[in-house]
Amino acid sequence: MAPGIQMEVCVDSVESAMNAERGGASRIELCSSLIEGGTTPSIGLLQLVKQSVQVPVFAMVRPRGGDFLYNDSEIEVMKRDIRMAKANGADGIVFGVLTDDGGVNAPVCMDLIAESRPLSVTFHRAFDMVHNPCASLECLISLGFERVLTSGCDSTALEGLPTIKRLIEQAKQRIIVVAGGGITERNLQRILENSCIREFHCSARSSRESLMKFRNMSVSMGASTAPAEYIVKVADINKVRMLTAIAKDVV
Question: What is the mean pLDDT of residues 182-188?
Answer without folding.
Answer: 96
